[in-house]
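User: Second chain of the day. Same drill as before.
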Amino acid sequence: MKRKSFADMNCPIASSLELIGEGWSFLIIRDAFAGLKVFDDFEQSLGIAPSTLTRRLNSLVDAGMLERRQYCERPPRYEYHLTQPARDLYPVFLSLYAWGNTHILKDERSFLLIDRHTGEEVDPLMVDRQTGVPLEEPIFRRLTAAAPDKDQ
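Assistant: Same format as last time:
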């Protein structure tokens, strides 16, 4: 079943989900943050079908989230590198990680975030870039009139 496109919604969350909201895409980017770069490593890490992985990698390259770099000519082999727009998603991954560990996995965690200098586990916190004040629940304020959702 094909999902509804969010492309016509004038919302930054909907637009972001249109680009990276497919689950495999998000997990590929997660693995790229963890240092994976080559097809075989993504395939092994995710347990994903090669055809699905190929489609998702191509989609992420086309969307400007990954850059494909050839590292072998015969046979042609490529590495996939995060672009700056993908790197800018890092706080989203940290937040989703923290939320999942707190509300879903609790004592069954399989990933830890560690400080690269101390090796200690870290608990991410979002702060305002200008003031450094932790963000609790900011209010989303719509700047333009919303178009009615056709499905509602």
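The chain has six helices and two strands.

User: Great, on to the next one.
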